[in-house]
Amino acid sequence: MNWNDLATALFGADHAVRADGVFLSGTGQLDGRTLAVIGSTDHAAIGFDLALRQAQAVLQVVVDAPGRPILLLIDTQGQQLRRHDEMLGIHRAMAHLGQCIDLARRQGHAVLGLVYDQALSGGFITSGLMADACDALPGAEIRVMRLPAMARITRLPEAMLAELSQANPVFAPGVANYVAMGGVRRLWQGDLTEALRLALADLPAADERARDGLARGGRRLADTVIRQVLSA
């Protein structure tokens, strides 16, 4: 689903979400309430400039519309792999984006992520995974690292990782595995406006991803370790 079809399905044809290149921003109306919409499209690579544009948009909502819910529409191939962006400090720009989203949450803005197409690597970590909750459409593609790249980094045979991915969601790409691990809270089916309404109505007050991962069998130790550390 492209971003305009999605915005229309969520808010109706009179939505005010606009694309400026791969950068999405604007507003939509839900039950008489205005939502801020920020995101990306066309499998955008999140580089230095785009990360700062998204961060600026988040801060503008905090300043201009206190308490307004923020919907993050996510379609990214991950961070921009260019020397230019590395020299400018892409790591700091992406960290700044994550901090701005965290600031919005602390200032009382409900922040909901929605992966509607593709979510890879750092572009996902500093957006959807920084929200109060992150949901996805069933056809979304989510992964942090391809198995060949994981094999090079870990120096484990790719065949071994492929075998592990059959039984352990941590090693496997795909939206269903991220649901199992708790990184994605739920998949939206049917009426997307109703799905958005329900998603905003039951945003968690605390980070429940490790608990969800344990309950769903995707992350069996994270919640236990977190509780042991907190009680130490």
TrEMBL record:
Gene3D superfamilies registered for this protein in UniProt: 2-enoyl-CoA Hydratase, Chain A, domain 1
Gene Ontology molecular function: any one: lyase activity
EC number(s) given by UniProt: 4.1.1.87
Record key words, sorted: Lyase
Species name: Sphaerotilus sulfidivorans
Annotated coiled-coil segments of the chain: none
SUPFAM superfamilies in the cross-refs: ClpP/crotonase
Record-given protein name: Biotin-independent malonate decarboxylase subunit gamma
A Pfam family this chain is assigned to: MdcE
InterPro entries: ClpP/crotonase-like_dom_sf
Presence of keyword Cell division: no
